[in-house]
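Posting this for the archive.
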Amino acid sequence: MHRLVILMIPILALTASCGGPIETRIQTEAAAALPAQKQYSFTAKPEQNSKTYDKARNLVAQALTGKNFVAVESASVIVHIALANRPASIAMTTGEKENIVRIADQKEQKFLQSCEDFEHRLTINMINSTNGSTLYSGTAAEYHCNGTFDQSLPHLIDAALSDLGGASAKPPNSRIRIRTGIE
């Protein structure tokens, strides 16, 4: 019996390294008040050609409907969606030379972790079609070892749109939301 307990400790440690809470890292900003008419259009041509992108577009449309937005053929607000699914072992940057900005740091694997993490990242921008200014921007990202991007999408969309609404601009907001699921 004593040996069985000793053998169970490593097994429990291995299974614990792939489970646990999932951190959703959220960044939002409402640069300006949204128009009184809550109408939007997606970009005429989809930004990406994949089933995951199509699913994201449909889920974003449902989420916007839940926030009393209406999809129309040609609106003053254009919704742009960007998806990224990258190995978490590499950092994400933008810019060149002295103007490099780090978007996401490299993630180290957890102790006894048996698979490589991937970062699932979604950005939703709402753009004023008249002058090109950003009215709202929301980004949500999670690290996953076994979870798929499709499984993450509803949570990422909910997080990215979490500060959408209201009559005035909102300053940049960064926070972490904890949830359970397949890590």
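The beta strands are 22-30, 39-42, 70-71, 77-87, 92-94, 101-104, 118-128, 134-144, 170-179. The CA atoms of residues 94 and 126 lie 21 Å apart.
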